[in-house]
Structure formats: C-alpha cells, structure tokens
C-alpha cells in the first residue's frame, strides 16, 4: 500500500511539474479591444478563431469592443466567475493603444490599455490598468483558476508585475517604456506581436503556412512557447509602416509567471 501511495505521489508530482492541458470546456476567454482601428480588429478576429479551433466553446468567449463601458468588462468578468470551474482556465486578451501612468506616461509604475467607450472619435479613452484589472479579477475569479493575460499595447510591460499573482501568467507586447508596432502582411494590418503569438498557438499563420514544426515537435504549443516564438519572429516581419521605415523599431515583449508549473500551461487540447 505504501509503495502504491509513493508511486501515485510521484506521478502527480511529475504531471504538476510539466503542466496540464486544460479541457476546452473548462477554458473561458475574455477579449477586450479598446480601439476600432483595422489592425486591432484583425488581431481580435485571429484570437477568437484560434480559441475556437483549439476547442474553446464559442459560448465561453466574451468579446468586448469599442462602444461598450468599463462596467461591461467588469460584469463580464463577474459572469465568468460564476460559471468557470475552480480548476478551469481564464484567458484574457487586451488589445489597443497603451501607455503608463504618471506624468505623460513617463514616471508611473503601472501600465494601462486605453479603452474607447464611444463609437465616435471625439471621446476620451479610459485607461484599464494592471491594478484595475487585478481588482476585478481578484473579486470575481477563484484564486485556483489558471489565468493567462496577454496585453497588446505600447508601454504595457508593467502588467507583468501589477497583475501578477499566484496561478497567473502575463505576456505583453512591449516593455513599460517602449512602443509596440503594427505591420502590413498581404494588404492587411496586424499588430506584430499578436500576429506571431496567435499564429504560434495555432501552429499556422493566417496565410496557411505551417509553422508547427518550427515551434514544437510534440504537436502542442504552450503559451510560453507561443510567446517565445512571437518574441523571436516578430522582428523578422519586414518594416512596412512609416514610423518603422523612418525611425526603425525595437520589439520588447515581456513575460512573467507566478511559478514554474504555470509556465507550461496549454490552451485546451486536441
């Protein structure tokens, strides 16, 4: 009996060290797009497509775009908290322009994504900071839920500290003092980091080219592997915008995880 218990403990320890693939029915997603620009709409569409292809039920993917309110985001998180299993996974994707708090975005210790609450161009966008998002999530989501946050925004790097808590992983497209960049691929606008990140999770870019073998031979891509792919391959997309052509660019994606086990977290399973 003792030998059986010891064997069971060893197996459980092994699995906990390499991470589990969450069942799709236990995965919920919240996609928040703060700007109505073409590249952000394309990013959101790609993110939703990859989640569905990986088996996440469409009914468990909440998409909030411009014209909604901050209250709608908080309510969506609360609704997810009432439905998600304690051993589930919540994937959050923030996608817009961004900056950091403090004078002119230069001195603050928290990053934020701007969220346009109006369909007109005359509105002043509202910031969603790492601390604000943490307050909403901590209030409504069990601390046992695995939370993956991806932020596509300039100066978003401080999310990796202000949102980080146990059982969480955070990836941002830029450091807290750097910009993130858009690009053109076959006539479509994309955010450079998001295009590569979601292509890696899918194992295939939107042009249908298979990149799976270049990422991982086991056929399943972890969030961290997708992040590393995006970090390494984002700069390989040729510069296409005026800003890049004139001034150049430097991609500076950031990553943080609360512990080594969540670093192996996977999106659903196939």
What does this structure look like?
The protein is of the alpha/beta class and 270 residues long. It has one domain: Rossmann fold (3-Layer(aba) Sandwich), CATH 3.40.50. Helix content is 35%, strand content 20%. It has nine helices and eleven strands. It has helices spanning 2-18, 38-53, 70-83, 130-140, 159-162, 192-202, 212-215, 223-233, 242-247; strands at residues 27-33, 61-64, 89-95, 98-100, 111-115, 126-129, 146-152, 168-172, 182-185, 188-191, 254-257. The strands form three sheets. Strands 2-1-3-7-8-11 form a six-stranded mixed β-sheet, sandwiched between helices. Helix 2 runs parallel beside helix 6 (192-202) and helix 6 crosses helix 8 (223-233). The protein is globular. The two termini are 35 Å apart.
């Amino acid at each position: 009996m003792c030998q059986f218990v010891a064997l069971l403990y060893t197996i459980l320890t092994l699995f906990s060290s390499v991470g589990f693939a969450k069942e799709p029915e236990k995965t919920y997603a919240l996609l928040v797009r703060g700007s109505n620009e073409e590249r952000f709409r394309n990013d959101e569409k790609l993110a939703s497509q990859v989640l569905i292809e990986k088996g996440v039920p469409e009914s468990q993917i909440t998409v909030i775009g411009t014209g909604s309110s901050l209250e709608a985001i908080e309510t969506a998180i609360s609704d997810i908290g009432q439905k998600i299993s304690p051993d589930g996974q919540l994937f959050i994707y923030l996608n817009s322009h961004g900056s950091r708090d403090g004078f002119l975005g230069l001195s603050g210790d928290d990053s934020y994504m701007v969220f346009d609450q109006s369909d007109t161009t005359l509105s002043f966008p509202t910031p969603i900071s790492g601390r604000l998002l943490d307050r909403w999530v901590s209030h409504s989501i069990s601390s046992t839920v695995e939370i993956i946050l991806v932020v596509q925004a300039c100066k978003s790097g401080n999310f990796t500290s202000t949102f980080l808590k146990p059982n969480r992983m955070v990836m941002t497209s830029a450091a807290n003092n750097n910009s993130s960049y858009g690009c053109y691929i076959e006539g479509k606008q994309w955010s450079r980091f998001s295009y590569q990140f979601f292509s890696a999770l899918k194992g295939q870019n939107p042009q249908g080219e298979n990149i799976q073998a270049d990422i991982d031979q086991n056929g399943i891509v972890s969030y961290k592997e997708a992040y590393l792919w995006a970090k390494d391959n984002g700069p390989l997309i040729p510069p296409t915008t005026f800003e890049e052509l004139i001034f150049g660019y430097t991609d500076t994606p950031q990553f943080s995880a609360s512990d080594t086990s969540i670093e192996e977290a996977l999106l659903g399973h196939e």
